[in-house]
Every structure is written in C-alpha cells, then in structure tokens.
Amino acid sequence: MEKLPHAPRLYYFVRKECDPSWKIEEQRIPFYDLLFLLKGSADYVINGEPLTLVEGQILFLQPGSIRSATTKGMSCVSLDFILEREESLDLPRVFPLVDREEFGKLFRELDFEWLQKRPGYELKCGALFSLVLHRLLFENREAPRNAHVELIKRYVLEHYGEKITIGGLAKRIGLHPAYCGTLFRRHEGVSISEFLSHVRINKAASLLETGEYTVGEVSEKTGFSDIFYFSNTFKRQTGYSPTYYRNRALLPE
C-alpha cells in the first residue's frame, strides 16, 4: 500500500477539450504529472517509448520524464504537482479510472475553486487534490462503492455506542438480513460485526488516551455492555489491556 505524501503542492490544474491541433512538444518535466483521459485518445512518447492512452485511463509521470503528445480529439483533466524533497510517489504509469463519478465530483469542485481564485483557494484546492491522491492510492483500484454498504458504514460510525443488530441494519436500508451481511463482507472483506467492533475499539482507544474516563466509562460509551468482553476485545485488537493503554497514554514523554 502506498504512503500518502503529507504535503503535495498542486500548481497546475485544468479540465479541457483538446482538438487535433493540441500537442505537447518534447520536454523533460520537473514535476509529477497526472492525466485523466475522460473521452477520446492521445498518443504519447514517454522516454522514447510510444504509448496510446484511451478513454478511462490515467497516465502518471514521474519528475524527469521526457514526454511529447498529440491527439485526434480528447476530453481530459491534467494535474501537475510537486512533493517535499524527501518524499516520493510511485504509481503505475498507466492504470484504469475505476470510479469516474467520484473523481468527477472532485474535479468539478477543484475547477470551481481554481478558476475563481478567491482568498485561500490554494488551501482548498490542496485539500481537494489530497482527496484525489487518496482515492488513487487507496480506493481507485477497488470496485466502485456500493450505496447500501456506505449506508451501513455511516450508520455504524454515527451509532456505535448504541445496540446495533444485523436485522435492524437490514431493515433500515431495505435488504434481507442474510444478503445484507453477505453484501457487506463482499465489499469490505470483513463482517458487519467485525467492522462494528473495529470502530468501537478505535473510539475506545481515543477516549482512553485523553485520561478523562475510566475503563468502565469508556466501555459503556462505546457500546460494550460487558466490561470483561470489552477488555478482551480491546487487548485482542490493540495488543494492550485498556488499563495499560490508558496509563501509558498518561505518562509524560
């Protein structure tokens, strides 16, 4: 899994329609380049090697790449960016654009901010571009999100402290309980119960770190009715008992 750079700096962004007169003269680029080809095709030469890019593909070029390009007509989004000197990013040179709808939303919002250039637009555009990179690194290689699964996840994240059952979730989103569980596992790789437990323990760890609550209070706040079950689950997932985790967080550095 790729590590997401903490401070990518986007300095060029454009959504454009290119006719056959468009071309890139041969040049060595000093930046990272991302091109999302939404319609049409483009013929590139990258470091002396010919490459044809078609609809639904993403081109990623490293700094120092030598490129030239022509097209018979295309619609695309182009982003140029740089990273801190000690950082790097490694993606395939060409890979598919899986979730065009989600990227489309981000591109429209980027376009809205980039063209207005209101005060603070650099910060907003940087945040949106970080979301683009996050999707490329961690989500674009997966199948598009399932609406029912997203509803389940959001409900769990908002109600983890309450009693949650598979039957109740299934009824809420209009699915049969058996299919609800199967669908979730197929998309997330874990059961709903495992996901719920993961969310609860993550929240418990955050509460314990503050030192404001006892282990019993944290257990109750995160939806565990049995403190012993909570302690065993916490230790299984984190490697520490809740008491040790809380006390460790309170120690001065």
What does this structure look like?
- 46% of the residues lie in helices and 25% in strands.
- It is built from nine helices and seven strands.
- Strands 1, 2, 3, 4, 5, 6 and 7 form a seven-stranded antiparallel beta sheet that branches.
- The relative contact order is 0.10.
- The model has no long low-confidence stretch (mean pLDDT 89).
- Strand 3 and strand 4 form a beta hairpin.
- It is an alpha+beta fold and 253 residues long.
- Helix 1 runs antiparallel to helix 2, helix 3 runs parallel beside helix 6 and helix 6 crosses helix 8.
- The protein folds into two domains: 131 residues, Jelly Rolls, CATH 2.60.120.10; 104 residues, Homeodomain-like (Arc Repressor Mutant, subunit A).
SSE arrangement:
Blueprint: E1 9-18, E2 23-28, E3 32-46, E4 49-54, E5 57-61, E6 66-82, E7 94-96, H1 100-116, H2 121-139, H3 147-159, H4 166-173, H5 177-188, H6 192-210, H7 215-221, H8 227-238, H9 242-250
Helix pairs in contact: 1-2, 3-6, 6-8, 6-9
Mean pLDDT: 89
Number of helices: 9
Helix content: 40-55%
Fourth-level CATH superfamily of the largest domain: Jelly Rolls
The level-1 CATH class of the largest domain: Mainly Beta
Main β-sheet, in a few words?
7 strands, antiparallel
CATH architecture verdict of the largest domain: Sandwich
Instruction: Enter the CATH topology name of the largest domain.
Output: Jelly Rolls
Strand share of the residues?
15-25%
Give the overall shape. elongated
By helix and strand content, what is the structural category? Answer: alpha+beta
